[in-house]
Write a structure and sequence with these properties.
By secondary structure, this protein is α+β, with helices and mostly antiparallel strands. The chain has one domain: Roll (Pnp Oxidase, Chain A), CATH 2.30.110. It contains five helices and seven strands. It has a seven-stranded antiparallel beta sheet. It is globular and about 60 Å long.
Length: 181
């Protein structure tokens, strides 16, 4: 006999396991990067990323983007990654709170490593010529690299929530959206 949930008041019990978190970071190519503007309002954009074994997440953008002066002013930032669009299905999410460090334009070793890693993540299945082209396009004078260092994470696994939900006759036991408001 399974103990089913009676409501969704506390979804913190449906955490994404560490292995699934790593799988999500590997399979997903985009995240939502969130910072605070000078008026104190939250702003976010979708960005491609690469994560590293130390738990850091790396991003890039042109220096004229509003996020870079905002990060310099207040490095406290947030990243959200979901499983939407991956073969993992929907309903798996991780939210990281942390700080962002803008890596100087002169840091050639970081740029070389990151551009190659991002190109392989996004276009590795399209062949070396596409990877090389992407690296060349990224390597522009005003491009910056951001190292995001997480300090806290919130994990959620919609599959676990669906498994804890009592079945309804004639309805599949899945959570199509996987998220709870």
């Amino acid at each position: 006999m399974t103990d089913y949930a009676h409501n969704y008041e506390d979804v913190s019990v449906y955490t994404l396991d560490a292995e699934r978190e790593m799988e999500l970071l590997e399979k997903q190519k985009e995240c939502t990067f969130i910072w605070t503007n000078k008026e104190g309002e939250p702003v976010g954009v979708i960005m491609s990323y690469v994560h590293t074994d130390d738990g850091h997440i790396w991003l890039t953008g042109a220096e004229q983007r509003a996020r870079f002066p905002a990060i310099r002013r207040d490095p406290r930032t947030c990243i959200v990654v979901t499983s939407a669009g991956t073969e993992m299905g929907t309903g798996k999410t991780v939210t990281y709170k942390g700080k962002s460090v803008i890596r100087d334009k002169a840091d050639r070793a970081i740029k070389d490593w990151y551009y190659e890693a991002l190109a392989r993540k996004l276009y590795g299945d399209m062949g070396e010529a596409r990877v090389k082209q992407f690296v060349e396009f990224l390597d522009s004078p005003a491009r910056l690299v951001v190292e995001f260092i997480p300090t806290k994470k919130i994990l959620f696994d919609g599959d676990k929530m669906a498994a804890a939900t009592p079945p309804v006759a004639g309805v599949a036991a899945t959570n199509p959206s996987g998220t709870i408001a």
